[in-house]
Amino acid sequence: MKSQYYIKVNQLLNGIKAPVLIIDPDAMVVEKANKTAIAQLGEALVGNPLQVMPVNGSFILAAGSNGKKSHIDFKSSRVHIHRKVYLLAIGQPVARQAALRLQLQHLEKERNLQEMKANFISMTSHEFRTPLTAIASAIDLVEGRMQREGAIDDFYRRNIAKISHEVFNLNTMLDEILTLSKIVSNNYEINKMPVDVRKMVDFLKHQYFTDRRDDRKLEVKISGTPRKVIVDKDQLSKILVNLIGNAFKYSDKKNPVLRLRYHKRKCEIRVADHGIGIPEKDIPNLFNSFYRGSNVDGREGTGLGLSIVKTFVEMNGGKITVDSEENKGTTFSITFRYEDE
Amino acid sequence: MRTNRTILLIEDKTNLSDTLRTLLEMHDFTVLLAENGEEGLRQARLNRPDLVISDIYMPVMNGYELLDTFQSDSTLRQIPVLMLTAKTGMEEVNKAMKKGAAGYVTKPFLFKKLHAVIRKILF
Question: I need a labelling partner for A202 at 20 to 30 A (CA). Which of A19, A54, A166, A220 fits?
Answer without folding.
Answer: A166
